[in-house]
Amino acid sequence: MADTLTLAVDCGGGGIKAAVLDASGTAHAAPVRVPTPYPLPPELLVDTIAKIATDLPAAARATVGMPGMIRSGVVVHTPHYITRSGPRSRVVPALADAWRSFDMQAAVSARLGLPALVLNDAEVHGAGVVAASGLELVITLGTGLGTAMFHGGRIAPHLEWSHAPVRRSLTYDQYIGEPERRRLGDGLWSRRVVSVVDGLRPVFHWDRLYIGGGNSRCITPSALARLGDDVVIVPNSAALVGGARAWDLPLA
């Protein structure tokens, strides 16, 4: 419905951002951002989302994007929220147990009193940009590497290949994540991004690759020129716009 407002929440490793948008993706108030609290049991994330919602206009439904493997709104695995103090800190076994099989979608819906949709954050990001034509791959560059794949606008089963090894003992997360960007500088890090794209192209044979996330703006102009015409850099705002558009995606 054209007048339906959606609370879109983008849960990251370092921050949680939310906005209320109409069906066209237009925000009805300035987005709200708070630092991601740690340690972070499921109930605290739900409470944090509810608190943010009180500072925004009322919405008719909610979309939450969060890192990790999410199936039908249920958390199979989430990498950051099971740690003591955030990305790459010590894993807390009790948090890992609390998050495993947690029905985030049901919890958000019950807490807010709204229909809710909970997806992987890269899937929500993709919902904001895909053309729903052919095979479209989305990668987000931030704390680590987020990924999503769409075929004809339908979300494909999620694969956490960001945890697969790409070079020696390094995973994709470790190879092009934020700590390596800070260590290497944008120039050398951008060369790694190009290398990753070149390596993935013959695996997926995508029709279009979208690169988003906060660090997409750090890719150098010379690296951008090498990525190819089948690669599009998209704004990080897609993570919130996708919250509104995700409800219109064709059923998987």
UniProtKB/TrEMBL annotation:
It comes from the Bacteria. Pfam families: ROK (PF00480). Belongs to the ROK (NagC/XylR) family. This is Polyphosphate glucokinase. It comes from Promicromonospora soli. The lineage of its organism: Bacteria, Bacillati, Actinomycetota, Actinomycetes, Micrococcales.
